[in-house]
Amino acid sequence: MRSINLIVVHCSATRADHALTTENLESEHRRRGFHGIGYHYYIRRDGTVVPTRPLEQIGAHAQGHNAHSIGICYEGGLDCNGHPADTRTPEQKSALRLLVHQLLKRFRKSYVCGHRDLSPDLNGNGVVEPEEWIKVCPCFDVGKEL
To answer: Were 74 and a residue from 33, 43, 93, 113 both cysteine, which residue would form a disulfide, CB within 3.0 to 4.6 Å?
Structure first.
């Protein structure tokens, strides 16, 4: 097993009024040149957690951080107008909390963050602030919630 020290939460950037099946996600990632889904887990709106890539395999979800991380993506992240929003259902929130808890029990020295938190600290103050985010993903503050 590879060494894991980071768990990264993502959203699929899917509108609240659209579904993104696991098959659609895989097609989208293959079109981008990935060998299958880049995340290790995908959480559907009904709370179903779909394992999408073996943990032993390096992900393709957070450039520069993939070798030692696990990627979790939830379906959603955009409101019905296509604007970034926390669209997680209660089922997704519960499933995400449980999954992260289980992963932290297994990979005790891991840090949990959102994809946006891996943006560069452009002003050098030690904090990645909203104006520095490369992406808004995952549309909620992972550090406060998880």
So the answer is: 43
